[in-house]
Each structure stands twice: as structure tokens, then as C-alpha cells.
Amino acid sequence: MIFDLAVTEHSDGVVVISIIGELDMSTAPRLREELIRVAAAMETPRVVLDLAGVDLLDPTGLGVIFDGVKRTRSRGGDLTLARAEAQVLRDLEITRVIEILPVFESVDEAVQSFSG
After folding, report:
1. Nearest CA among 98, 49, 47, 48 for reference residue 74
2. Tens-place pLDDT, residues 40-91
3. Which of 52, 64, 53 is nearest to 26 (CA)?
4. Burial class of 100 by CB neighbour count within 10 A (0 to 12, 13 to 18, 19+)
5. HSE-up of 5 (CA within 13 Å, CB side)?
6. Which one of 30, 41, 53, 93 has the minimum C-beta count within 10 Å?
7. Mean pLDDT across 99-111
8. Nearest 10 degrees: Cα torsion 79, 19, 43, 62
9. Has residue 10 got a pLDDT over 90?
10. Residue (of 90, 107, 97, 46) closest to 72 by Cα position
11. Which sign does the torsion angle of CA 72, 77, 82, 84 carry?
């Protein structure tokens, strides 16, 4: 199973975490660690999770995303999602997560959402 994370920081201070592979019980702890590190390093953490490379999102992965939302919001920031593949987007719709945490079509749109 392939799983990887890439972390980049935009010039406006938004951190983008691109995820590749399955976000499940075995890989979710790695994302959790990264979200904890990023949130602790920023005064007002603003994070975009780029889901374009995610093939599967299970309840454990979803829990880590919600933990990241709580962590960033408790510090005055936020977390958004971008570029979910069709199956992941369908899972987010079925679980009604999309009503609480919208998914932007592009990373740039997600980054811009912090401005307005």
C-alpha cells in the first residue's frame, strides 16, 4: 500500500497537505502527527487537505480530519478540503460531512477561502 504526504506552504501562510493513497486505520496516524505539528507551529493555523490522491477514506481517516478541524479552530484557524476524488467525495456526501466541511474544487479556491 502506498501512502505519502507532501506539505507545502503558500506565500499567504496557508499550509497545504497533499495526501496520496488510502487514508485508513494504518495510515491515519501519520496525518494526525502532521496536523499536530503544523497546528503547533503556526499562530493561526490555516490548513488545506488536498485529497486529489486519496483512493479511500475510512472512518479512522475521517476522525483524523475532524480532529484537525478541532485543533486548528481552537487556535483561531481552520481546515478545509480540496480536490476530493469521486469515491471520496461520495463518501463525504453520504456521511453528510460535506455539509459541515465543504470540499473546494481546487487548492487555490480552498486557499482563497481563508481570505474572505
Report:
1. 47
2. 999 999 999 999 999 999 999 999 999 999 999 999 999 999 999 999 999 9
3. 64
4. exposed
5. 18
6. 41
7. 93
8. 40
9. no
10. 46
11. positive
Look up the CATH superfamily of 3-112: STAS domain (3.30.750.24)
- Compute how many other C-beta atoms are within 10 angstroms of the C-beta atom of residue 64: 22
16 three-class SS: strand
Crossing angle for the helix pair 28-41 and 59-74, nearest 10 degrees?
10
**Domains of the chain by residue range:** 3-112
The DSSP-derived string for 50-82 is EEEEEEEE-HHHHHHHHHHHHHHHHTT-EEEEE
pLDDT of residue 95: 87
Chain-wide mean pLDDT for the chain?
94
Q: How far apart are CA 116 and CA 109, in angstroms?
A: 11
* Res. 2 pLDDT band, cuts 50 70 90: confident
Q: What is the pLDDT of residue 116?
A: 65
